[in-house]
Design brief:
two-stranded antiparallel sheet; about 230 residues
């Protein structure tokens, strides 16, 4: 959900260049954290998750002009390292498809990558005290709230709060041209807030249901241990 649809040339150079530098640094760290045994077992599965993310980010939620990203689900099932790498690949592919400019792919990776990391580590902590489905839903909701807040913070700091408003009449500087200025008789930020809340609750519900399914049929994907220091690559 926290995906900036700005075309190239809108975001200031200092912002998107800095985002790419940070993104590459995080990718290098994540590559070193991948366990050797995890590569053979989870890389094909991560590819499937990446394809699912591409599909979900290309299809709006029916009458709600917003899409799911499934980043938290990706982090829970693939792990934080492979999950973050998958988010980077997905954002590069989306930018090549015109779903936001290539210049904002690094920033989008950081925003969605925060969902992967927050979701994974929060789920790992919560699943010891509650059902996996509930832990996943709560983790997704918190991670999405943080990433959406960061997204609006970046937009407000770079192009202004009015331009960041969904459905702004300029059409070029908004979050996405497909989002209307009104929703359910609401308009402006009220409409944006309702759209985002419904979207986040929907993605949290979907994440919880899918995790509940995997906890029954493939519990090894849910209960996989955290990154081991002794099995790092490199």
């Amino acid at each position: 959900m926290s995906h900036i649809h700005l075309p190239d040339g809108i975001l200031p150079f200092a912002w998107w260049a800095s985002a790419y530098i940070v993104c590459i640094a995080v990718l290098c760290i994540m590559l070193r954290l991948i366990k050797k045994g995890e590569v053979r077992r989870k890389v094909p599965f991560t590819g499937v998750m990446s394809a699912l993310m591409l599909i979900s980010m290309s299809v709006p939620l029916g009458f709600i002009p917003i899409h799911m990203s499934l980043s938290v689900l990706n982090g829970i099932l693939a792990g934080p390292a492979l999950g973050f790498i998958a988010v980077f690949v997905v954002n590069i592919m989306l930018s090549l498809m015109g779903h936001g400019g290539l210049s904002v792919a690094g920033l989008n990776t950081l925003l969605m990558g925060s969902e992967v990391l927050i979701g994974y580590y929060m789920f790992t902590a919560l699943k010891r005290h509650m059902k996996p489905s509930l832990a996943a839903g709560i983790s997704a909701l918190v991670a999405l709230t943080v990433s959406v807040a960061l997204m609006f913070g970046v937009l407000a700091a770079t192009i202004g709060t009015e331009e960041a408003l969904p459905g702004h009449e300029s059409g070029e500087h908004g979050i996405g041209k497909e989002q209307p200025a009104s929703f359910l008789s609401l308009s402006g930020w009220s409409a944006a807030a309702v759209i985002l809340i419904i979207g986040m609750l929907t993605e949290a519900l979907v994440t919880g249901l899918i995790v509940s399914f995997f906890s029954r049929v493939r519990p090894d994907l849910i209960d996989a241990p955290a990154v081991s220091e002794s099995n790092r690559m490199g």
